[in-house]
């Protein structure tokens, strides 16, 4: 009993840390929230818990686990959305280097789940890696765009997919859908309203008009995705674990850190339109296209140090529980 209680406590702690990392990761284009849950060692247990909840099997254990992840993720987003946004815009290589290490820390956990590895595991790993390869090797992208209610609901589905599918970046999908700035801006406005005591009704309405459709889409994506992944983990564990490992490694390829926003010039195409001189000059840094740059020795040293820090953090987190399949 005591051992079970200790294991439950370790899993809940990892759920809190993994949820916070998931929330932060979903703010960073190119980084997957699901990858962070996988690296924290809470992914299989969370998928099972969410699958039970979507079937309306309401027992306290899955509710506690899912609630811990959700609360930690929401808290991280609420506290750090503005700060992370500015850091990604101004120091993208720092964030990407750190998340490379955090992501690689999940590899030993997946390997422990998969031993002894079967041919179906390796086939699944190759498939997962191949699925992410086009995205990882494609050109970097910047953020811009507006969205209506339908677009915002699709953004919510994308965010849910990012949590369910390791290696798929929710923020990256928001960029592709043109909703990145709209969603993060709404989170920041809601935070301002809450800090001011809810006095600004117009600002609250503006924030909720974005966040409510996003939340609705997220619930739909979450319900469908968790049931599908839960079924695969239960019926076809080895190849599913292989796919997860492939997605994890493929995600690292997509996190090339040495890239930054570059001010566009007149005549360039941004967000599907050719910019005039006035439009190019008026674009905020958050809307600039992202380009790769040649790193200096200082960049390389800093990136390796940040990656090592992230790797150490998730490796130590995984050692809290020797049984990565543990569940409440």
* Number of self-contained structural domains: 1
- Category from helices, strands and their pairing: mainly alpha
The percent range for strand residues is under 5%
Gap between N and C termini? 12 Å
Q: How many DSSP E strands?
A: 4
Write down the overall geometry. Answer: globular
Description of the molecule:
By secondary structure, this protein is mainly alpha-helical. The chain has one domain. Helices cover 71% and strands 3% of the residues. It has a two-stranded antiparallel ribbon. The longest helix is centred in the middle third of the chain and has 35 residues, at 201-235. The two termini are 12 Å apart.
Features:
71% helix, mainly alpha, globular, 328 residues, two-stranded antiparallel sheet, 14 helices
């Amino acid at each position: 009993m005591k051992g079970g209680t200790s294991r439950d406590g370790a899993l809940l702690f990892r759920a809190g840390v993994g949820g916070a990392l998931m929330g932060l990761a979903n703010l960073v284009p190119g980084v997957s929230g699901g990858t962070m849950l996988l690296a924290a060692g809470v992914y299989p247990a969370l998928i099972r818990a969410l699958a039970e909840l979507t079937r309306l099997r309401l027992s306290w254990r899955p509710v506690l686990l899912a609630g811990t992840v959700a609360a930690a993720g929401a808290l991280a987003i609420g506290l750090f959305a503005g700060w992370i946004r500015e850091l990604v815009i101004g120091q993208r290589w720092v964030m990407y280097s750190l998340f490379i290490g955090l992501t690689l820390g999940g590899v030993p956990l997946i390997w422990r789940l998969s031993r002894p590895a079967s041919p179906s595991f390796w086939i699944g790993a190759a498939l997962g890696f191949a699925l992410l390869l086009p995205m990882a090797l494609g050109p970097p992208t910047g953020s811009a765009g507006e969205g209506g209610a339908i677009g915002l609901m699709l953004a919510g589905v994308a965010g849910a997919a990012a949590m369910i599918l390791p290696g798929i970046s929710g923020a990256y999908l928001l960029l592709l859908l043109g909703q990145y700035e709209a969603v993060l801006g709404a989170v920041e406005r809601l935070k301002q309203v809450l800090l001011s005591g809810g006095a600004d009704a117009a600002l609250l309405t503006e924030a909720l008009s974005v966040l409510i459709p996003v939340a609705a889409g997220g619930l739909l994506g979450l319900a469908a995705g968790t049931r599908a992944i839960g079924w695969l983990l239960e019926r076809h564990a080895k190849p599913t674990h292989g796919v997860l490992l492939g997605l994890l490694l493929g995600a690292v390829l997509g996190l090339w850190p040495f890239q930054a926003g570059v001010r566009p010039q007149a005549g360039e195409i941004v967000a599907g339109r050719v910019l005039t001189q006035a439009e190019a000059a008026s674009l905020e840094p958050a809307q600039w296209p992202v380009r790769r740059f040649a790193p200096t020795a200082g960049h390389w040293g800093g990136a390796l140090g940040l990656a090592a820090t992230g790797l150490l953090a998730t490796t130590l987190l995984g050692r809290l529980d020797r049984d990565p399949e543990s569940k409440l």
